[in-house]
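Re: beginner question about structure tokens

> Can someone show what the tokenized structure looks like for a real chain? I only ever see the sequence side.

Sure, here's an example I had lying around. Input first:
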Amino acid sequence: MAHADRITCPVLSTRVTTAEEAARHVTHGMSVGISGFTGAGHPKAVPGALADRIAVAHSRGEEFRIGLWSGASTAPEVDGRLAEVHGLHKRLPYNGDPTLRRLINTGEVDYVDAHLSHTAQQAWFGFYGPLDVAIVEVAAVLPNGLLVPGSSVGNNKAWLERAEKVVLEVNHWQPRDLEGFHDVYYGTALPPHRLPIQMTHPMQRIGDPYLRVDPAKVVAVVETNAPDRNSPLNPPDDASRDMAGFLVDFLRHEVAAGRIPPNLLPLQSGVGNVANAVMEGLLTAEFTGMTAFTEVIQDGLLDLLDAGKLDAVSATSFGLSEDGARRFLADPGHYKGRILLRSQEISNHPELVRRLGVIAVNGMIEADVYGNVNSTHVMGSAIMNGIGGSGDFARNAYLNFFVSPSTAKRGSISSVVPMVSHVDHTEHDVHVLVTERGLADLRGLSPTDRADRIIEHCAHPDYADRLRDYVDRAKAARPEARHTPHLLDEALGWHRAFLRDGHM
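And the corresponding structure tokens:
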């Protein structure tokens, strides 16, 4: 790989080296900030070389584990490799790797599950301690030392600013035409010196097209040519299509009621097949002139752009399938001016989500009869992935939806339960629940009215009568406490039954 067209800074071009040499800058006990957001823009070579070093150290009986900070999930060659060699003692703020998940749930790796909008600012506050090394993938290094970001921005700005040492990976797979796709805001400040973020439209530029780095901190530059983790998406199943249909019909109702404009409000959708199915539902709907202010650009958003239904997308990362990545790479210029990638402290910023009036769609593991949502923990204790950005958007959205099939594990688990086993989104933050059974609009309802609506419209018939019986008996048990009635000795009984018998 000749780096003449990718690394044109005279100073940094002298620091080109191998991944193995770059990995030597990381030692036991360090905190390492890494690029990457849902499989896009993660470093492709240095983490593997670091994992090899850790494995050798462990074979000699030496301790070698690090803390790993990122934007969100990365890829098997990062989280998976480092977990396989038992090289992590802490991870934040999100994970998606099964090997790492197992080590978190067995207690080997401490996991800090944080709102994605909080991570950069909490690093700046000093809540996480010093950041020793940043390993950041970019598309190019310009003559003046500015960096052309790649397919994700995430927390890269914060890591480049906070780290004592910086390792850059320049990935030739990332299109050189990505220059101009980014807007990196450098106006953040610590309290009490913060100012309003002057942004009123998803595509408004408020920052720079480039990342900045102090050249004196850059200890190594490594060249790669490797793709992102472009994960295939399952085609929407009947349940996903049903949920998408309910949601799109509800948006039609809100337009007819005059509560949202005909081109909707800026859309946010979480990562996954159900969220992608919602975008497919919008593809065949009548809405045009739409915009998105979200975290990740999945295939569904690319489809809407290609169809002319969606005018523009502001996000922090791509999250495409292999087919979606091929489509984008074939003609990046086709999307320039319609896609803008920002730092996640801006893409997820509560101030901006509220000002823009975002319509948010996110997944959940379970909801209870009063509308509390668990989006992170299976049976109350085992982490799945993390809260991600759902809290950033749900609490501040103009309108939010939480979606899930009504059952899991072939019907042995109900997604609507008497009491959630873990709370990520309280009833106060949840507007609408959607399953393949129907949609429950919870806005303006008391807890018991919410229970009636959720059971009627969202619960599976195999569980609905038992849920009604629970609420009725809870009301009768304590006539003086009927605001949010619970039977405390039964509230988590369905979860206990599953753990004991394998069925709720």
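Each token stands for a local structural state, so reading them left to right follows the chain. Residues 263 and 279 are 14 Å apart (CA to CA).
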